[in-house]
Amino acid sequence: MAILTRGEHCPPHVHVGTDHWGARFEFCFWHNRVWLWDVVPLYERPSVVLLEGLRQQLQIAPNLRRAREAWWRSLQRVCLANKLWSVERGLVVASREQVPDAIKIKTARFDPLTYRTVLQLTGHDSPLEIIL
């Protein structure tokens, strides 16, 4: 697994693969789940069992921590600014129409020393800290 640091883009993800195929697994800085983003080329993709095994390995706490720390060190962003946070649900949501209590995330940063994500929500003086 590799965290590429040159020319990378949101969302946070890792690359896994061989000379024949490549997969990307997405992770985030507000919960501890990992999911398969894509595999290319599809006709060379490995088995579902292998992909699921890789996903589970990345989701193991020390591996996910290394991925987050490498992403933050290289890119200095968690890809949450300008998204919406539901205070009631405690998660990032798609739109205000679907979730009336959604608040825009003004800024977001990761603190690797305390292993927390710090969100500054629009209209709130105190930041919201997410312990990972």
Task: Explain this structure.
- The chain has helices at residues 48-59, 61-75; strands at residues 13-17, 22-26, 35-40, 84-86, 91-93, 102-111, 116-121, 128-131.
- It is α+β, with helices and mostly antiparallel strands and 132 residues long.
- The protein folds into 2 domains: 13-75, no CATH class; 84-131, no CATH class.
- The strands form 2 sheets. The protein has a 5-stranded antiparallel beta sheet with strand order 5-4-6-7-8, with no helix packed on it. Strands 1-2-3 form a 3-stranded antiparallel beta sheet, covered by helices on one side.
- Strand 4 (84-86) and strand 5 form a beta hairpin.
- The two termini are 21 Å apart.
- The model has no long low-confidence stretch (mean pLDDT 93).
Described by strand count, sense and barrel closure, the largest sheet is: 5 strands, antiparallel
Secondary structure tally: strands: 8
The helix fraction, in percent, is: 10-25%
Whole-Å distance between the termini?
Answer: 21 Å
* Tally of DSSP helical segments: 2
Output the structural class.
Answer: alpha+beta
Our Rg estimate from Cα atoms comes to: 16 Å
Summarize the structure.
By secondary structure, the chain is an alpha+beta fold. It has two helices and eight strands; from the N terminus they run E-E-E-H-H-E-E-E-E-E. The model has no long low-confidence stretch (mean pLDDT 93).
